[in-house]
Design brief:
The protein is α/β, with parallel strands linked by helices. It folds into three domains: 159 residues, Nitrogenase molybdenum iron protein domain (Rossmann fold); 138 residues, no CATH class; 83 residues, Nitrogenase molybdenum iron protein domain (Rossmann fold, 3-Layer(aba) Sandwich). 35% of the residues lie in helices and 20% in strands. The chain has a six-stranded mixed β-sheet with strand order 9-11-8-13-6-15, covered by helices on one side. A five-stranded mixed β-sheet has the order 1-5-4-2-3, sandwiched between helices. A four-stranded mixed β-sheet has the order 10-12-7-14, with no helix packed on it. Strand 4, helix 4 and strand 5 form a beta-alpha-beta unit. The N terminus is likely disordered. Bound molecules: zinc ion. Zinc ion binds next to loops.
């Protein structure tokens, strides 16, 4: 049984005797373990690590946009029959935890390729807010009531942002986080005391709580129905003495349609599933960690070839290290450190690794939410301000936004390939993660000086 010891990097769903027996039977039946991967990078890493020792397949059909992807019942049935299932993370494939849960009792080795990569800590300190809520409001008067709890206010003052959103639900929340971050860092807040009125147009306020009163009350007047977002420097619940802080004119609770952090959700993991940048593979250093996780999973499913996988994994990591050094040495020399990207926000980890700025008009980390005209206008302004000769666009999505910016500024459109997936032609042409990233490096050399 020694060869089925749990490798700590990998979650094994069944270590029972029957599970091992089933696995061995299946290996004997097909000859080669079957591996299912979600995104192209893992698929390509498995090819490099395992060669023809496994049968690897990519869940995404060629050319399909990955963020909106959901597996079909047939895909799920295939995952149930596989020996190894490799996904990027619950942030990239929010459907994965559900599918994995249903695998219980089956001898499928599940690899979370992001294991050991710290996505949490990076953002925590950067957020100037603690709470965001989106509300669907009809015209009328509302009140925010902040109370002393155990004799005092949780803080004497609190910054807030209140504004109407062009989006609804989760998109409104994601947009508000980005807007609020900018406002908290750059705008001058309006100081407001008990009895003051918050306008959805004025952006950022500092609320000053009245130390002589048990409640400090601020009113809001809404003229047009729509989605409004409230961003607060502390959790509103810290100022609640027995009743909800957001009230309507009839003194009823006004409850958010969606909020962050999401306390209404029973699943403790779920609240982290929003707003974390899932694009770990675009950072070659994180990609090395992904390779380690995949090697561990393959070695566990197929211990006879473990040494082979480790050796190839090490060789491949050396290539990733060389790629990283190429990026690092080029990007250390340039003066203009801003990637102006008309695609969705995919290069955040990459930009952080090499101390670059990364501007995208998209909200959140998915290409499905179209950017607003205002955000496109901001990016046009940025192209003009920086004098950039190029605007980068993404792969597999019609570069409509890049074209608008290119036409407005004369900047040339260049591809920055997010490598989530590849087109049928690229796949036939032998595209690899390394060839895609080397293409990106060449085009960054063209566009950044
Ligand atoms: Zn993406």
């Amino acid at each position: 049984m020694k060869r089925f010891l749990v490798v700590p990097l990998v979650l094994v769903l069944s270590l029972s005797l029957s599970g091992c027996a089933a696995l061995q039977t299946r290996l004997a039946g097909t000859g080669r373990p079957t591996v299912i991967t979600t995104l192209f990078p893992q698929y390509d890493f498995v090819r490099a690590i395992a060669g023809d020792k496994v049968q690897v397949s990519l869940l995404l059909p060629p050319g399909v946009e990955s963020h909106a992807f959901e597996p079909t019942p047939r895909d799920i049935a295939n995952i149930h029959r596989a020996d190894v299932f490799i996904y990027t993370s619950k942030y990239m494939e929010p459907w994965a935890p559900r599918v994995i849960k249903a695998l219980q009792g089956r001898p499928v080795v599940v690899v979370d390729a992001s294991h050991g990569i710290e996505l949490e800590a990076q953002e925590k300190h950067e957020d100037p807010y603690e709470w965001v809520g989106a509300f669907d409001l009809v015209p009328g008067y509302y009140q925010l009531v902040f109370s002393r709890v155990d004799g005092k206010y949780a803080d004497p003052t609190m910054p807030i942002v209140f504004m109407q959103s062009a989006y609804s639900k989760q998109d409104a929340l994601d947009a508000a986080k980005l807007d609020a971050k900018g406002l908290f860092e750059q705008a001058t807040p309006t100081l407001l005391q008990h009895g003051g009125t918050i306008s959805p147009r004025a952006g950022i306020y500092t609320l000053e709580f009245d130390q002589n009163r048990n409640d400090s009350i601020f009113s809001i007047r809404i003229e047009t129905a729509g989605t409004y977002v409230l961003v607060t420097g502390h959790l509103p619940s810290e100022f609640e003495a027995g009743r909800h802080f957001f009230r309507d004119a009839q003194d009823r609770d006004v409850v958010s349609v969606v909020e962050y952090p999401d306390h209404k959700d029973g699943d403790p993991d779920h609240k982290h599933a929003h707003g974390k940048d899932p694009h770990i593979w675009l950072d070659p250093v994180f990609a090395k960690q992904m390779v380690d996780n995949i090697v561990a999973g393959l070695a566990q499913a197929d211990p006879n070839n473990a040494a082979f996988y480790r050796q190839n994994g090490d060789a491949y990591k050396a290539k990733l290290q060389a790629l990283h050094e190429q990026f690092a040495s080029f990007l250390a020399t340039i003066e203009n450190r801003t990637i102006l990207y008309a695609g969705h926000f995919a290069f955040g980890h990459f930009a952080r690794r090499y101390s670059l700025e990364h501007k995208s008009p998209y909200v959140g980390f998915s290409p499905t939410a179209e950017p607003t005209p205002r955000r496109i206008a901001e990016l046009i302004e940025n192209v003009r301000k920086t004098g950039s000769q190029v605007i980068y666009h993404e792969a597999l999505v019609e570069p409509r936004v890049a074209r608008i910016i290119s036409e407005a500024t004369g900047a040339r459109m260049l591809l920055l390939h997010g490598a989530h997936n590849v087109s049928r032609d690229d796949l036939r042409g032998g595209a690899t993660y390394l060839s895609i990233m080397e293409g990106n490096l060449a085009r960054l050399r063209e566009g950044l000086r």
